[in-house]
């Protein structure tokens, strides 16, 4: 017997297959339980699709400099707070609760070697669908992702002692109203003295205005100020804890005592601004008695990094960038003056 | 005449409702040209109608050539020459003397920096409002502060470009008092269409009194104004706030509009403009102050409105 293929029969077959598929989906017979895992062939197929997707997309869209060179402390602190419960860390097993997921999060000591820096950057930036891996909490902060790439790259060879030294610092005396564990989390990156453990990307907190630190914590927690690292840390704090921590760190010795020093051009911008290009003087707001953060003595690398973040990508037109106070002003600072200005405000040191 | 009746649509900003010498002569010329154009169009239509209805060979070759010479050459030449001669005086700027008031106006994105330079007196800085005395000659020195703008008070005079690095002079004389409006007529950025200003023509004695009051410093400073660093860009004379980047606010409360002729001067408008100027004027050079609590913005607005 011969079966003649006609358009009608093809259409009927396709429709029957579609209807059968929909019937199966509607019936609920398909098992979405994480407890049963995948068949080996399904597991292979899904991972094969995922790896191909990451490789292709990373090749096209990840930056050419996906890895920071130093500055591991803030990435390590974020890893300890946000990643280690699923992935584990040197000296710390992943949580059995999270390992009961399908798929379970991979051990990065093994898995990180399979990816290039660009691929790691892409995965950290975008996350992976259907796997539980979230996208980076602040898409505006590729610098944070770069530092995390550097940290993850180091994981396969990282000793327990090294991990501890990156994520833990002596917390010092406790703070009333704040659990020791919470304070230890802050001190892990900021240091017990609030000086940022010498990290170029972490600001000095001591000597800052407590109102400003509180507003910053609140803005991080609300997502108004962009940082996956600080956003994750601040979201867990209650209003009382934020107030106590802001007061605790602001009361320490730190910035605001040393006089600025450095280039005369930077001094002119700070004291007089550049009216010819509509750049107001820094000191018209950042001065004693005014409601703005203290800059004198702040880490130069941190100031420069903040100014560059505010300026944003030069490929994006100004009309599409933030119109908030500092982004507008930072965009008017001549590009070559950012580093001299930061150094000047820092008091002459980097 | 239909066009003339449009003048009734907007007495504040219309070249057909002039309140100045130059705009009046422009309006008169427009009317003469309009009447002339109508007469010529009607005459041409009648001639064409006549030519179509007339059987051929009515004119000899010589007569035809004569008609072409007169109707196509001599009469148009006389007409155009007459028009040229009558319109040339309108191109001549009004004569000025050293005793005349000079007003510097600088176009900025998207506002107007105004400085009055009366003869034998100190200059008086203001913004977003131009006041002129009726019956006196005033020389407007027009400059572009950042990009090219164009200055036009339709009821007072023709437009003139404001070009960075160059000073263009426009001489005007107002003929009747009133409150009018001027605009920027050269695309200058996102908020070009939101760049206007108030024009007030005043009786000379009232103008002199006003200018003397405008020259005075403000009544007093304000803690919020200082605390939020507003003086980095704005000046309030007499308070130590001396920023020259944005508009001078010494007598801000005496202006009737806010944001260069865009919003009515109400406390709510001033407060919301301080916190989010970009919502009123996209691309505005002033940054948002959204970290300022709304209550502070209202208090600051009340202070600014009190600067009469």
UniProtKB/TrEMBL annotation, chain A:
InterPro entries on file: Cyt_c-like_dom, Cyt_c-like_dom_sf, Cytochrome_c_Oxidase_Subunit
Coiled coil: none
UniProt KW keywords: Electron transport, Heme, Iron, Metal-binding, Transport
Residues in Cytochrome c domain copies: 70-156, 167-253, 257-349
Pfam families: Cytochrom_C, Cytochrome_CBB3
Record carries keyword Iron: yes
Keyword Repeat appears in the UniProt entry: no
Protein name: C-type cytochrome
Species, as recorded: Sphingomonas longa
Lineage: Bacteria, Pseudomonadati, Pseudomonadota, Alphaproteobacteria, Sphingomonadales
Automatic annotation (TrEMBL), chain B:
Listed transmembrane segments: 29-47, 67-88
UniProt record similarity statement: Belongs to the cytochrome c oxidase subunit 2 family.
Alphabetically ordered keywords of this record: Copper, Electron transport, Heme, Iron, Membrane, Metal-binding, Respiratory chain, Transmembrane, Transmembrane helix, Transport
Lineage: Bacteria, Pseudomonadati, Pseudomonadota, Alphaproteobacteria, Sphingomonadales
Domain Cytochrome c per the UniProt entry, residue ranges: 216-308
Entry keyword Iron: yes
SUPFAM superfamilies in the record: Cupredoxins (SSF49503), Cytochrome c (SSF46626)
Chief place where the protein resides: membrane
Reaction(s) catalysed (UniProt annotation): 4 Fe(II)-[cytochrome c] + O2 + 8 H(+)(in) = 4 Fe(III)-[cytochrome c] + 2 H2O + 4 H(+)(out)
Name of the molecule in the record: Cytochrome aa3 subunit 2
Gene: coxB
Topology term for the membrane: Multi-pass membrane protein
Domain Cytochrome oxidase subunit II copper A binding: 98-213
Subcellular location: Membrane
Function in brief: Subunits I and II form the functional core of the enzyme complex. Electrons originating in cytochrome c are transferred via heme a and Cu(A) to the binuclear center formed by heme a3 and Cu(B).
One Pfam family in the UniProt entry: Cytochrom_C
Signal peptide: none
